[in-house]
């Protein structure tokens, strides 16, 4: 390519998204749903050839349902096909100058398209969804706290009809071996992925992938041989345990999502599921800013809300990471004898069973997944809201306490969820009876007044009045609930504020023009650094031999 003779074409865009993976594409899709244009830049011309995610949690499915694609997603087999085409493919390099891009009033990014044309894009906001080695993050001067764990794993993605037919206990998700890694049963039926640790100096090219799979499946015994129809992919990867020091640049022009701002082991499924949330959080805020009704505190609230939640998930991820340790200790202590039909073997197996019974399921962290409590300057919280409900990582307590995710409750028709009633961006949900009493009339009047003032402020509020839905009202616990685009509670009350100025004040807070009275940014209390050190030295991942 002759860069010297290449002409520059300058473009203007409100928002540029760097990275066409799931987080980048979902961010673009949400912006489109909100009526906000953007430019998406991606350097690869094909999608990945092997799975990058194997657990879509309930919260992600809720978000897909709200987008109207929940049922379609459930019916999918595998990922997007390799014949999927994009109109424009770019290779990017983000303003590699001497000054951090976050200091300027707009962002300049430079791209080279597939025909060799250099394009300069000036944008108000730049979204970094470009993965763990994010160039956007580095150019914005944002550091990552943490590092890759010093362990390599070798994966083999393969197809085997014989293995599919020989499952003695039916379909499974993960099968762990105390000696030689683990196997994932993929969705396609006869597709599997085997993982096992390798030494740092091991020659990957010398590994026979079939023999590798046989060793993993053999567990503590001899290699388990069967017919492998096709080796589809082999690769190495490293476990990462890191989080960005901030999600939004100092100047408020660059925002990060997905692996660009958090990296973690797959244990618990907190990687892409968190990225799916990031995409919506970024999109509704940027749309509000571009349309002019979002204030100066809005984008920073993304960092204030999502980063503490991700720290919480990293801590939980570490707990999951330690789960296989007793298996590996048993193997070190007893070797193949742990499967023997004698007193020692039975004792070891009983100990492992007790361990599994005590920890329960790894993927039923309902508190972590469904009960995120956001605390930021744009959450309208007053003394009238009372004490915050107790929180548990394993269980979910339905609540509309400000900052909480609104509860999913089926209405009387047993088909429609409260989530299905929400508008695309902001929704005022009100409850009333069907009678013509003054109380019922007041609900309708207050709702109409609130929406009218929101329209005056330029805030796109949709209203829903649920009639005689006593069960839903009992669970939601409030007559009026203002719900954000991400289905979290921005404000609630027994009635709408009595004055127009009171309504305007609520709207100014939740859209980031004013800090909620009494709000104080608290220092994040996290054991991340302590956990990181324990994680690095836990020995919870064994390194195998070729």
UniProtKB/TrEMBL annotation:
Write the record's keywords in alphabetical order, separated by commas: FAD, Flavoprotein, Oxidoreductase
GO terms for MF: FAD binding; oxidoreductase activity, acting on paired donors, with incorporation or reduction of molecular oxygen, NAD(P)H as one donor, and incorporation of one atom of oxygen
Residue ranges annotated for the FAD-binding domain, each copy included: 13-74, 107-312
> From what superkingdom does this record's organism come?
Eukaryota
Q: Does the keyword Translocase apply?
A: no
> Can the keyword Oxidoreductase be found in this entry's annotation?
yes
Q: Which PANTHER family match?
A: FAD-BINDING DOMAIN-CONTAINING PROTEIN-RELATED (PTHR43004:SF21), TRK SYSTEM POTASSIUM UPTAKE PROTEIN (PTHR43004)
Q: What is this protein called?
A: FAD-binding domain-containing protein
Supply the source organism for this entry.
Cytospora paraplurivora
Q: What is the lineage of its organism?
A: Eukaryota, Fungi, Dikarya, Ascomycota, Pezizomycotina
């Amino acid at each position: 390519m002759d860069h010297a003779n290449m002409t520059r074409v300058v473009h203007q865009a409100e928002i540029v998204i760097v990275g066409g993976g799931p987080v980048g594409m979902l961010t673009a899709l949400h912006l489109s749903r909100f009526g906000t244009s953007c430019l998406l830049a991606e350097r690869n011309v094909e999608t990945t050839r092997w799975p990058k995610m194997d657990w879509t949690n309930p919260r992600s499915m809720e978000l897909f349902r709200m987008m109207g694609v929940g049922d379609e997603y459930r019916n999918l087999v595998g990922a997007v096909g390799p014949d999927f085409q994009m109109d424009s493919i770019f290779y990017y390099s983000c303003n590699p100058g001497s000054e951090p891009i976050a200091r300027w009033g707009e962002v300049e990014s430079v791209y080279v398209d597939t025909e060799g044309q250099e394009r300069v894009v000036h944008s108000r906001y730049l979204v970094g969804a470009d993965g763990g080695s994010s160039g956007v993050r580095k150019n914005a001067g944002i550091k990552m706290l943490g590092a890759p764990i010093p362990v390599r794993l070798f994966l083999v993605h393969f197809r085997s009809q014989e293995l599919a037919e020989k499952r003695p206990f039916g379909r499974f998700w993960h099968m762990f071996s105390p000696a030689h890694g683990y196997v994932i049963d993929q969705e396609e039926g006869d597709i599997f992925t085997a993982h096992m640790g390798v030494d740092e100096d091991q020659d990957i090219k010398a590994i026979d992938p079939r023999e590798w799979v046989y060793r993993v499946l053999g567990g503590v015994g001899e290699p388990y041989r069967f017919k492998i129809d096709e080796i589809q992919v082999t690769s190495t990867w490293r476990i990462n345990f890191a989080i960005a020091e901030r999600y939004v640049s100092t100047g408020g022009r660059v925002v990060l999502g997905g692996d660009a701002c958090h990296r973690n082991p797959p244990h618990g499924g907190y990687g892409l599921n968190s990225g799916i949330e990031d995409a919506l959080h970024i999109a509704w805020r940027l749309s509000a800013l571009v349309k002019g009704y979002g204030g100066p505190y809005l984008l920073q609230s993304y960092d204030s809300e999502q980063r503490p939640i991700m720290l919480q998930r990293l801590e939980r991820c570490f707990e999951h990471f330690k789960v296989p340790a007793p298996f590996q200790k048993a193997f070190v202590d007893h070797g193949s004898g742990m499967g023997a039909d004698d007193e020692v073997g039975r004792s070891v197996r009983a100990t492992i069973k007790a361990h599994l019974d005590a920890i329960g399921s790894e993927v039923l962290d309902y508190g972590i997944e469904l009960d995120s409590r956001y605390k930021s300057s744009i959450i309208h919280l007053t003394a009238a809201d009372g004490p915050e409900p107790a929180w548990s990582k394993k269980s979910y307590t339905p609540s509309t306490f400000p900052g909480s995710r609104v509860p999913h409750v089926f209405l009387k028709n047993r088909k429609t969820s409260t989530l299905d009633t929400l508008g695309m961006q902001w929704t005022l949900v009100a409850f009333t009876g069907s009678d013509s009493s003054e109380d019922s009339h007041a609900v309708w009047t207050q709702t109409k007044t609130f929406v009218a003032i929101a329209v005056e402020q330029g805030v796109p509020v949709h209203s829903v009045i649920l009639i005689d839905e006593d069960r839903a009202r009992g669970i939601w616990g409030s007559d009026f609930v203002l719900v954000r685009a991400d289905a979290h509670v921005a404000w609630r009350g027994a009635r709408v504020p009595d004055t127009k100025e009171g309504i305007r004040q609520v709207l100014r807070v939740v859209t980031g023009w004013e800090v909620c009275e009494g709000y104080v940014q608290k220092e994040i209390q996290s054991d991340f650094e302590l956990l990181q050190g324990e994680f690095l030295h836990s020995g919870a991942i064994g390194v195998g031999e070729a």
